[in-house]
Design brief:
By secondary structure, the protein is mainly β. It has a single domain (about 10-94), classed as Sandwich (Immunoglobulin-like), CATH 2.60.40.2550. It is built from one helix and eight strands; from the N terminus they run ββββββαββ. The protein has one helix spanning about 65-70; strands spanning about 10-15, 20, 20-30, 35-40, 45-55, 60-65, 75-80, 85-94. A five-stranded mixed beta sheet has the order 2-8-7-4-5, with no helix packed on it. The longest helix has 4 residues, at about 65-70. Mean pLDDT is about 85; it is low at about 1-5.
Length: about 90
């Protein structure tokens, strides 16, 4: 029996993790009209992006354009919170 650790990683993928102008989030939502939050933190732990989204049941793809959100070169943590769980991925902006 596997414990539920509050991690959604089998339904969640962010790529590329080394990005120039955009990154993509793929997420499989188990419920219709699921509310989710996308946050991006810089290497000092400051939240630089905070966006609420509504996901449709099944496959969702979101593109995040770094010129639009103004990310400088550096390391970031991308956090998706959905369905009472969260997942964090390290991103590098070139």
């Amino acid at each position: 029996m596997q414990a539920d650790l509050g991690i959604i990683d089998e339904m969640f993928k962010v790529y590329p993790t080394v990005m120039e102008d955009k990154t993509t989030l793929d997420y499989i939502a188990p419920e219709e009209d699921e509310s989710a939050n996308i946050s991006i933190y810089n290497m000092w732990g400051q939240k630089v992006i905070d966006k609420d989204v509504v996901l449709q049941k099944g496959f969702n793809r979101l593109h995040i354009a770094t010129p639009t959100i103004g990310l400088a070169t550096g390391m970031y943590h991308f956090v998706l919170q959905a369905n009472g769980k969260s997942q964090t991925v390290k991103l590098i902006k070139e």
